[in-house]
User: Fold this.
Amino acid sequence: MILLASGLQSAECHPIVELMERPIEVELPHKLGRDEAHRRIANNVHKLHNHIPGGAQVQSSWSGDRLNLDITAMGQTVAAQIDVEEAKVRCRVILPGMLAFFAGPIEAALNAKGGDLLLEDRSKKS
Assistant:
């Protein structure tokens, strides 16, 4: 609950909570071209839940070259967008207020391992 001049109000309804969201934006360069990068991401997105501590439920949908994700773990839902471009992939993750404290480690992990996870090609391996 939040105490306002007008009285108590649930934090779930208060606009201040929305301001606590923390966006993370990461660019992952590649030399695959747009179509190949799109194919690899589409082939790997189902593995995303394995890389989140405690597991997660991942819902995904494509709109052109944008992958929209809703990732639910530990009672929190994180929205993300992945835009596939000719020479890079742009990742935007919106952390809810409760997860904003973890923005630094999450951003570091995306920079370090994001390209490997998203752009890995297992189609040619036995």
